[in-house]
């Protein structure tokens, strides 16, 4: 079911003397049917390529983490977790977005196909979903108080999708407006 890969990790508890230590990066390489994915296949799938890319990044950064792979509705979700706070620096929203794009590019470079994978580092997606819920709640309150519309700040297509779902759950309507980095969600009754 799961395959454990070993990586060298630097112990940074003593800033003057950095000594390599052994650590593990757990990679759950199950496919959708629950069968183990054979790492020797000539054609590697999107999940394996992305997991290998993130695993190498963690190794380069001397960070320890567990990588879990899940596929839902044809989209690969990679979740990177750890037992401590080592991933905190990578879990910032802009950093996660940048790493997600780099991972998608790595997948596309190897497969020749566009990747729609979603990357979560250290619970950053859950934290952002909570923040988006607060934004939607505030916008809905403004509309209920008499505003005809409420515009949210620009965000990624994935975040806008989450917002559209949250808005629909509350019985309101939402549309994305704008282009490129200025694309945002507008909520109405």
Explain this structure to me?
With 189 residues, the protein is α/β, with parallel strands linked by helices. It is built from 4 helices and 8 strands. The protein has helices spanning 46-60, 93-111, 124-144, 157-169; strands at residues 3-11, 19-28, 66-72, 75-81, 118-121, 149-151, 173-177, 184-188. A 5-stranded mixed sheet has the order 1-2-3-4-5, sandwiched between helices. A 3-stranded antiparallel sheet has the order 6-8-7, with helices on one face. α2 (93-111) links the parallel β4 and β5. α3 (124-144) crosses α4 (157-169). It is elongated, with a radius of gyration of 20 Å.
Question: What's the short version?
Answer:
The chain is of the alpha/beta class and 189 residues long.
Low-confidence stretches: 1-43
Number of helices: 4
Mean pLDDT: 80
- In helices, the fraction of residues equals 25-40%
Work out the radius of gyration.
20 Å
Question: What are its keywords?
Answer:
189 residues; alpha/beta; 8 strands
Please describe the topology of this protein.
Elements (H helix, E strand, L loop, with lengths): L2 E9 L7 E10 L17 H15 L5 E7 L2 E7 L11 H19 L6 E4 L2 H21 L4 E3 L5 H13 L3 E5 L6 E5 L1
Parallel strand pairs: 2-3, 4-5
Antiparallel strand pairs: 1-2, 3-4, 6-8, 7-8
């Amino acid at each position: 079911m799961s395959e454990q890969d070993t990586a060298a990790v630097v112990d940074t508890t003593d800033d003057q003397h950095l000594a390599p230590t052994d650590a593990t990066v757990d990679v759950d390489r199950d496919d959708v049917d629950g069968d183990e994915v054979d790492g020797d296949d000539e054609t590697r799938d999107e999940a394996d390529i992305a997991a290998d890319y993130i695993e190498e990044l963690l190794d380069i950064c001397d960070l320890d983490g567990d990588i879990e792979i899940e596929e839902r509705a044809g989209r690969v979700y990679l979740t990177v977790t750890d037992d401590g706070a080592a991933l905190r620096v990578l879990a910032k929203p802009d950093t996660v977005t940048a790493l997600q794009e780099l991972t998608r590019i790595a997948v596309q470079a190897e497969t020749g196909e566009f990747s729609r994978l979603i990357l979560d580092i250290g619970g950053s997606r859950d934290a952002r979903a909570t923040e988006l819920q607060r934004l939607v709640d505030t916008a809905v309150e403004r509309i209920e108080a008499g505003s005809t519309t409420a515009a949210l700040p620009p965000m990624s297509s994935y975040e806008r999708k989450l917002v559209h779902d949250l808005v629909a759950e509350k019985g309101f309507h939402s549309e994305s407006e704008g282009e490129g980095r200025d694309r945002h969600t507008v909520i109405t009754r």
